Amino acid sequence: MGGRSRGWAAGPLPLPLLLAGLLQLGAAAQVGRWTEVEISLPPGDNITVFVKRGTLTWPTNLCNIIFQRRRLPSLIIKRGEKAVFTFECSDPEKHYVLEVQKNIDCMSGPCPFGEVQLLPSRLPALNRTFIWNVKASPKVGLELQFSSPRLQQIRPGETCPDLVTYSISSSVEKTAVNIGTFCSNGTVSRIKMQGGVKLALYLPWNENRNFSGFNITNRSSIRRLCIIESVFEGEGSATLMSANYPDGFPEDELMSWQFVIPPHLRASVSFLNYTLSNCEKKEERVEYFIPGSLTNPEVFQLGDKQPGNMAGNFNLSLQGCDQDFQNPGALRLLFQVLVQYPQSEGNKVYTVNLSNERAMSLSIEPRPLKTSRRFVPACLICEGPTRCSSNLTLTSGNKYEISFLCDDLTRLWIIAEKSISCTDIGYCSRKSYQLLVPSDIIQLPVELRDYTWKLFVPKDKISLQMSPAQKLQQHTHDKNCETTFSYMLSSAVQGQNLYFGSFCPGGSIEKIQVKTNISVVLRTFSPGFFNESFRQGMNVTFIPSFKDEGIFTVTPDSKAKVYLRTPNWDRGLPPLTSVSWNISVPHDQVAHLTFSKERMGVSCETGRAFMIIQEQKAKAEEIVSRDDEPLPKPRDLHHNFWVNISNCSPMQGKQLDLQFCVSLTPRKMDMMVIILAAVGGGSTLLFALGLLICYAKKSKNKKDSKEPAVGIYNGNINTQIPGKAGKFQKGRKENDSHVYAVIDDTMVYGHLLNGSNGSSTSPEVDVYRPFQGPMGDRPPSPPPICSRISTKKLHPEDPRPFLLSESDGEPYTFSHPKTVALKGNEDNGIPLLEKKEPEEVME
Ligand SMILES: *[C@@H]1O[C@H](CO)[C@@H](O)[C@H](O)[C@H]1NC(C)=O
Ligand SMILES: *[C@@H]1O[C@H](CO)[C@@H](O)[C@H](O)[C@H]1NC(C)=O
Ligand SMILES: *[C@@H]1O[C@H](CO)[C@@H](O)[C@H](O)[C@H]1NC(C)=O
Ligand SMILES: *[C@@H]1O[C@H](CO)[C@@H](O)[C@H](O)[C@H]1NC(C)=O
Ligand SMILES: *[C@@H]1O[C@H](CO)[C@@H](O)[C@H](O)[C@H]1NC(C)=O
Ligand SMILES: *[C@@H]1O[C@H](CO)[C@@H](O)[C@H](O)[C@H]1NC(C)=O
Ligand SMILES: *[C@@H]1O[C@H](CO)[C@@H](O)[C@H](O)[C@H]1NC(C)=O
Ligand SMILES: *[C@@H]1O[C@H](CO)[C@@H](O)[C@H](O)[C@H]1NC(C)=O
Ligand SMILES: *[C@@H]1O[C@H](CO)[C@@H](O)[C@H](O)[C@H]1NC(C)=O
Ligand SMILES: *[C@@H]1O[C@H](CO)[C@@H](O)[C@H](O)[C@H]1NC(C)=O
Ligand SMILES: *[C@@H]1O[C@H](CO)[C@@H](O)[C@H](O)[C@H]1NC(C)=O
Ligand SMILES: *[C@@H]1O[C@H](CO)[C@@H](O)[C@H](O)[C@H]1NC(C)=O
């Protein structure tokens, strides 16, 4: 069909050839069953009818025209002629087509304007094309008016549902210009052209319409190639194209589109496809007349965001340029006009002032949704009154006025990202930043999907501490987050696949410390975030670096059970990674610690995985489980305690995922004291307190001296247990110091190697090779010397850091503990082999 509609526009038809093969027909006896056709053309109209073989290549001998007892392959009937003929076959529609050409010459005489008839009538049921060729002076405008249902432009290669097709062309200096191909049922009501029109109407053989559907009238000059008018009667859309699309628009031409929009609706223009030509002079552009605009005509480049949310009729013109003769290129444009009701949000303007923000960007964009075939009104975001698009990006440092042109704002969401970097250690160290979604963003009527803070710190120099405004709960299967939003913490180190977990307000996690770059994503799960946004907020402090991947400070409430789990849940803690929990137990409470399973379940390829529980008191017993041993039975802990989990390099499939639960119950002993106090009066209590203080002093003096000092495992990485009871002399209020003291603690848990609960006394030697598996993008840069020593081999015979000569490839050995190594360092709680700086961390 495309061929048909373009054929005539391309050039003169090979008409004379059709008559060439006249056949002499022997006998009229061969007349087919098809009824006789009579075509009679009046002498007044310049009409010619061609009956010719169709494009389908049936064998030509199957069917012929029988005319005046002769078999003809084709027939031409000219003005004033009458022809009576039949077809040889019963299905001539498979073999023959009709073409009716009518020439209308407005140059030499008056033009027969008005309704265009489909003449001649009573044509045989063949595919037929009516072609009206109107010649007119270049100064005369001609207007085609289409009755309802108007026309709809189709893209090249598309076909009309009912196959009824209008092809319209014009000419520029005798060169045919294709204005467009149209179907019924659209918005195009009028097409104005200048200097002649060629219109072809194609009807399939089984279409028996008897009207053309259009009028021709004359108009004064339009001074451009053409004007296409679209009339919208309700919501809808129209797709329109520049002349000759997808080929280039004629050089230095002007084409316009007018749009009639019902007063209560709004229109938006979007350019679906365009290319520019190579201009030598002038500039290709589009110009709008927008009702209400004070700057009409509004000039846009084709690459600009086109106007939207326009109320009232508007028009749009495409202006070409003088093209480069050598390399003209092609100007072409495919665009869409969407007309829909102004949405309730349409009139509301939101101010988003990001003047004070830095390194932040936000986009309001469509949620990914499955597409349906029905008409979906566009959902546009407008910046200012008319610059609307389906996707808007805002950047920090600017202020925006935003409105929405959208029937359903749940089709949109907001995604924002902000980067915070510490580059100057001296400057940012111990500085604090608040992670808060700005209120200008919260007030928007669109759901905030993700607000991501990317926190970057210098490697091995600075770590991060996050203190939420409300204590956090970790999302677990046993205790789901039920808030409207959560924080999702994951590593932002390239190649490090580490997800700390999802955390929501309303829990016991007071502080989360992570070793290095992370991304904190505030993700909302329901529209209620607006009402719950007061619970957001997290302070980030840049603190001196430590070695664990993460440290969680947990202060449980007496009521609830606290569930905690290792990072990368379901995928396993990354190899050779260590994580710690610092869990507070109030003086009058006992913590009950339960693991969700009996064993770690990890299978180590190299190294060992450890789970260590240690109470933060003098002479605290360390409860240690290795990957090949059962985890401790549920137990009660009377003091603040650490849980440390450090991974080996596990085998595929057998990963380390641990979850545990902490719950508090009132301490019976304290009850005793209270009762005693109540009974015995103040003096008894004072006496008891005195005893306690003495005991504490004593134990302080004794601290550490009994600690075995040996043993390093999983060297070169971050597997260190949080440390030793003796380091925790300070009160709970100063817990931060504990953290750092502990983090940087030299490894002194040789007794771990005696098996859990110290049951085995035989020296155990294990050989560990440094992690040599895939390192991903993590640069294999060695840790600083001090930490290297502390994390690598600490040989019992070498109590001081004289081991630097070892190469990384050398196996590290565990060996039996010796107690002397750390003597003399315990008083200030500073690890033997560490710098003092971690002590300075406290806020
Ligand atoms: C009929 O149309 C043809 C083609 O345009 C033209 O050559 C011819 O002069 C016309 N005849 C009359 C009588 O207008
Ligand atoms: C008539 O049109 C139909 C569909 O438009 C097409 O399939 C058929 O081949 C055409 N007939 C001829 C003879 O070209
Ligand atoms: C054409 O004009 C006639 C008379 O002017 C009018 O009745 C008819 O509705 C018009 N048809 C179209 C398609 O505009
Ligand atoms: C025109 O559109 C209406 C409504 O969309 C539809 O019912 C009708 O079938 C369409 N007609 C044609 C010829 O496509
Ligand atoms: C078209 O056909 C309808 C009914 O078949 C008839 O009423 C009408 O007059 C016809 N119109 C023309 C222009 O022949
Ligand atoms: C249309 O044509 C008629 C007769 O040819 C003429 O009188 C009239 O002025 C023309 N109208 C315009 C707008 O050119
Ligand atoms: C835009 O034009 C290019 C090149 O002709 C074509 O590949 C692409 O599909 C077009 N896109 C649309 C939306 O029509
Ligand atoms: C566009 O609209 C303006 C204002 O209504 C009008 O002056 C201008 O002639 C129109 N242009 C076209 C091409 O319709
Ligand atoms: C944007 O906010 C900043 C700080 O809140 C304020 O100083 C500035 O005046 C605001 N800008 C505008 C244009 O309202
Ligand atoms: C939004 O716009 C940006 C930049 O123009 C683009 O990268 C992104 O893919 C767009 N998103 C959607 C959903 O259209
Ligand atoms: C963290 O990000 C900073 C800045 O991009 C980079 O210099 C540093 O190396 C990153 N840290 C790690 C551990 O990759
Ligand atoms: C966060 O920092 C702000 C200002 O620095 C402070 O007012 C607020 O109390 C801090 N909140 C927390 C939870 O530390």
The largest β sheet comes out as:
9 strands, mixed
Structure annotation, total helices: 8
Compute the separation of the termini in Å: 80 Å
Low-confidence stretches: 1-33, 673-678, 680-843
Amount of beta strand: 35-45%
CATH class designation of the domain at 32-230: Mainly Beta
Helix content: under 10%
Rg over C-alpha atoms, rounded to the nearest angstrom? 43 Å
Query: What is the approximate shape?
Result: elongated
Mean pLDDT across every amino acid position: 76
Indicate the CATH topology of the domain at 32-230: Jelly Rolls
The name of the CATH architecture of the domain at 32-230 is Sandwich
Ligands (ions, cofactors included): 2-acetamido-2-deoxy-beta-D-glucopyranose
Assign the structural class, choosing from mainly alpha, mainly beta, alpha/beta, alpha+beta, or little secondary structure: mainly beta
CATH superfamily of the domain at 32-230: Spermadhesin, CUB domain
